Amino acid sequence: MSSSILERPLFQGENGGASPTLPLLSVEEIRQLVQKALSPELLKGRWKTEQGTLDGHCYVASEALWHLLDKTLWQPHYALYMDAGGRATHWWLVHKDTLEIADPTKEQYDGYKFNDPYLEDGVPPYKIARIGNFLTKEPSKRAKIVIDRVLFSYQLVWKLSLGEDNE
């Protein structure tokens, strides 16, 4: 029986910072793979009722993305605000040098209307950002699921691009 992808080292060398794990992909491509790896069973709390949306996935998606990218170059950020369901939190990553934003669930704000006049409708709440840290140094159980799915997809696409058969 083969070992989980996560039992192998995630980082295998330097490639200039984007992703030692997925060196042939851009940050945007990795962000999209993380987004595609999300599913309803990963949701917690009030978000469990959200089906087929990105709502409620920002923490686990950002955590997984952080572990897939060069962690020394990316800093987790979050914002707290009130929405129709009460207190809400949004998580994303910011590059420490370039200030580039990598937000794996930013599309959830398309068409979103804030009650707060300081926040721009349809735009994630980056204006009220706080620097944060994830709860654990290693990937959480939910982040491991997302990372495993991303790495599986990456390996599958790579095999198909090389014309290799499924073994």
Keywords:
167 residues, alpha+beta, four-stranded antiparallel β-sheet, 3 helices, 4 strands, 26% helix, disordered N terminus
Describe the structure.
The structure is a single chain. By secondary structure, the protein is α+β, with helices and mostly antiparallel strands. The protein is 26% helix and 14% strand. It is built from 3 helices and 4 strands, in the order ααββββα. The protein has helices spanning 27-36, 58-68, 141-162; strands spanning 74-83, 86-95, 101-102, 130-131. It has a 4-stranded antiparallel beta sheet. Helix 1 crosses helix 2 (58-68) and helix 2 (58-68) packs across helix 3. It starts with 26 loop residues before the first helix and ends in a 5-residue tail after the last helix.
Write the layout of secondary structure elements.
Blueprint: H1 27-36, H2 58-68, E1 74-83, E2 86-95, E3 101-102, E4 130-131, H3 141-162
Antiparallel strand pairs: 1-2, 1-4, 2-3
Helix pairs in contact: 1-2, 1-3, 2-3
Give the neighbour order of strands across the main sheet. 3-2-1-4
> Ranges with pLDDT <50 over ≥5 residues?
1-17
SSE order, one letter for each helix or strand: HHEEEEH
Helical fraction: 25-40%
Number of strand segments? 4
Number of helices: 3
Report how far the terminal alpha carbons are from each other: 13 Å
The major β-sheet equals: 4 strands, antiparallel
What is the mean predicted local confidence, pLDDT? 81
Please state the overall shape, judged from the principal axes of the Cα atoms: globular
Instruction: Tell me the β content.
Output: 5-15%
Radius of gyration (CA) equals 17 Å
Structural class: alpha+beta
